[in-house]
């Protein structure tokens, strides 16, 4: 096999300048040198010419000069009381600077005496002036303005503007109930799987409110749910909540039609039609085999169209108008994407491709569709308003039940390559690139998640507004946010099109800026942030996140095979016994994670060896629980599950998560990594040990649920 071209020193320097890793340490402890074709492909996706040696040298020169051409930077994210502004002034010019606060006030900036750096840029001398930012600048989203004037000129000849984001140093510790010594616990649930008799075949925001109220009454401080980002609005709907169409807007699939106020204004005939639409899907609520999103949405959409057509009062219409105006162009673009998806699903013959112009949001065709589909666009605008209201009601129910945090949302790491975000924010994403993970012992070829990565430079040029708006939407009606794969705020594994996932490389992001934006929005919302930092994570990253007040995560089975004493866990942590990528604890104890992988052909070792290792791990953990006095001889499965959670409560960790599946005795995994069609990932309804569906209506009286939640609540209080 021919050796891949190795990069020149200039290509290495150019890659380093743009945050592209030219070497890294693999999972297996080997130092990997990234070949030139990968570096060129990644740089090209960034808009950097790197195909020839001459282009590489020219691009390297351009990279060095680019910052010197801007009067003020496009964006600057700083901690409050810190930071300086780099200003670039043409020789023979004066400059005036000011910060326009988001409050509307203007603060002039003073340029201190100094000996500035100088550089020849495009044949002209440019001076770099360093301007310290005032220590008392308030937190917030501000704008830096600079005016440049040639010596002796009567007026300014140039103005530069840039975003200035002032962020908190550290977020506060999570709020907890009195008597819990600064610690709290909560439920973790896959919302789609948690249904009631009033559901439409899938768990929804009404079920979320009821589940939160039930958990709050049991002493829980939070309810963590799967990402509820919007997916497709046409069949087939993506089952994975971690591969959404957009991370900015939310899934109308979770709306409860009957909870919309305008239902009261339907005619008797329309109410009967709504009831019939529900009746036809309601039988699915007790089907313990599989969640059918397509069927649920088809039924629910018919009902929602009825309610949408009902008259709105003047005050309700005013509220809707204000919501749409406040969300602005991004919401209108998302609603247009939904309308276009439905339009082509209804009008194109099976297998036919839509016009290429339809994929370009700036094309004349899309402009025409915006007018032609205005009614459908408005329907989807209205749906997002309803989503916002019903999520607000769920958070209110959570807080009224006594929860100190309430709903905890989950932020997916990326979006679908053909979804709304990739369409409307095309310039923000790297073309021809998807993200994933390098090879490890579980995925020896690496992983490709088929999600486009944000372009670091584009994010900075946009003043990090897309990141801000995404976080702001999720925290509007929530008390916490879990960030899936928070390492993506530091670096992502980029895979050029046509190459395998193992042939990618890491690309660095400005973590100070991105974490700062996250911290500012969380601070303003009074929210807790948890970063999923499992797997290969450099130690300094965890230290950095902890210093910013962002909690990490820990899964008992990943901590020394379950044998690491919880007393050694970190304090700033959400600690759990399991995760959605493993079977519930009852299934894990039974070795279901081995049996399922054997059945699906996913094992790389003999099944007997895997089973033996799983049994040794289980027996060692049970032995440890006995030594601690948490188990007697011949314990039941339920007793072991409860003992594990009580054991975990001895950690100093601020938050403890209890999976709802553990609380009811479910054994089936929600997601089996390494599979797509082979297993019904993200489609498994909540059921008990007998295989029968468990509904929210019956949960408060469920013996296992009451026993485990009482044990955890009591252990924390002790």
Automatic annotation (TrEMBL):
Residues 72-168 form the MalQ N-terminal beta-sandwich domain. Its EC number is 2.4.1.25. It comes from the Bacteria. It is an enzyme of class 2 (transferase). GO terms for molecular function: 4-alpha-glucanotransferase activity. The keyword Oxidoreductase does not apply. InterPro entries: GH, Glyco_hydro_77, MalQ_N. Belongs to the disproportionating enzyme family. NCBIfam families: malQ (TIGR00217). This is 4-alpha-glucanotransferase. It comes from Microbacterium fluvii. The lineage of its organism: Bacteria, Bacillati, Actinomycetota, Actinomycetes, Micrococcales. The gene is malQ.
């Amino acid at each position: 096999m021919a050796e891949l071209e190795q990069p020149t020193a200039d290509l290495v320097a150019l890659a380093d300048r743009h945050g592209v890793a030219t070497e890294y340490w693999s999972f297996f402890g080997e130092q990997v040198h990234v070949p030139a074709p990968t570096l060129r492909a990644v740089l090209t996706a960034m808009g950097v010419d790197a195909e020839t040696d001459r282009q590489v040298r020219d691009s390297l020169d351009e990279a060095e000069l680019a910052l010197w051409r801007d009067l003020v930077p496009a964006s600057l994210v700083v901690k409050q009381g810190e930071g300086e502004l780099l200003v670039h002034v043409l020789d023979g010019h004066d400059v005036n600077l000011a910060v326009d606060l988001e409050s509307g006030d203007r603060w002039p900036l003073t340029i201190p005496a100094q000996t500035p750096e100088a550089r020849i840029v495009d044949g002209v001398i440019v001076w770099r002036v360093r301007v310290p930012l005032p220590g008392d600048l308030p937190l917030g989203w501000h704008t830096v303005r600079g005016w440049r004037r040639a010596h002796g000129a009567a007026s300014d000849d140039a103005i530069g503007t840039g975003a200035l984001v002032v962020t908190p140093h550290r977020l506060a510790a999570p709020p907890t109930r009195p008597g819990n010594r600064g610690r709290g616990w909560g439920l973790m649930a896959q919302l789609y799987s948690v249904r009631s008799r009033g559901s439409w075949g899938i768990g929804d925001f009404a079920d979320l409110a009821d589940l939160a109220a039930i958990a709050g009454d049991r002493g829980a401080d939070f309810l963590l749910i799967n990402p509820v980002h919007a997916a497709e609005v046409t069949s087939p709907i993506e089952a994975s909540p971690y591969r959404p169409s957009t991370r900015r807007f939310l899934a109308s699939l979770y709306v409860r039609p009957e909870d919309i106020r305008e239902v009261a204004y339907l005619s008797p005939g329309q109410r009967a039609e709504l009831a019939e639409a529900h009746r036809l899907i309601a039988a699915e609520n007790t089907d313990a085999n599989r969640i059918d999103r397509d069927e649920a949405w088809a039924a629910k959409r018919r009902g929602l169209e009825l309610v949408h057509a009902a008259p709105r009062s003047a005050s309700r219409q005013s509220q809707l108008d204000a919501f749409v105006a406040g969300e602005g162009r991004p919401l209108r673009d998302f609603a247009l994407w939904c309308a276009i998806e439905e339009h082509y699903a209804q009008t194109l013959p099976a297998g036919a491709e839509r016009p290429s112009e339809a994929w370009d949001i700036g094309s004349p065709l899309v402009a025409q569709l915006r007018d032609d589909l205005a009614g459908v666009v408005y329907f989807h605008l209205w749906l997002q308003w309803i989503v916002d209201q019903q999520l607000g009601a769920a958070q209110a129910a959570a807080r009224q039940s006594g929860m100190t945090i309430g709903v905890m949302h989950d932020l997916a790491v990326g979006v679908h390559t053909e979804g709304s975000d990739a369409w409307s924010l095309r310039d923000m994403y790297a073309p021809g690139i998807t993200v994933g993970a390098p090879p490890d012992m579980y995925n020896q070829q690496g992983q490709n998640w088929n999600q486009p990565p944000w372009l670091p430079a584009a994010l900075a040029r946009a003043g990090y507004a897309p990141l801000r708006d995404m976080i702001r939407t999720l925290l509007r009606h929530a008390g916490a946010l879990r960030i899936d794969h928070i390492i993506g705020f530091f670096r992502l594994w980029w895979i050029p099109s046509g190459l395998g996932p193992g042939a990618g490389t890491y690309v660095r992001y400005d973590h100070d800026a991105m974490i700062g934006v996250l911290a500012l929005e969380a601070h303003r919302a009074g929210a807790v942030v948890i970063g999923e930092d499992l797997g290969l994570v450099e130690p300094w990253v965890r230290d950095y996140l902890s210093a910013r007040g962002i909690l990490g995560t820990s899964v008992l089975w990943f901590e020394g095979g379950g044998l690491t004493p919880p007393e050694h866990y970190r304090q700033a942590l959400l600690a759990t016994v399991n995760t959605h990528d493993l079977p519930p604890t009852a299934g894990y104890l039974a070795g279901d994670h081995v049996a399922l992988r054997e059945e699906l052909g996913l094992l790389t070792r003999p099944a007997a060896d895997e089973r033996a290792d799983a049994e040794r791990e289980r027996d060692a953990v049970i032995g440890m629980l006995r030594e601690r006095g948490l188990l007697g001889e011949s314990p039941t499965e339920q007793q072991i599950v409860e003992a594990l959670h009580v054991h975990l409560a001895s950690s100093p960790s601020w938050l403890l998560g209890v999976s709802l599946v553990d609380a009811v005795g479910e054994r089936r995994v929600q997601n089996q990594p390494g599979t797509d069609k082979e297993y019904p990932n993200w489609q498994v309804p909540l059921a008990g040990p007998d295989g029968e569906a468990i509904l929210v209506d019956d949960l408060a009286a469920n013996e296992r649920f009451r026993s485990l939640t009482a044990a955890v609540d009591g252990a924390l209080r002790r």
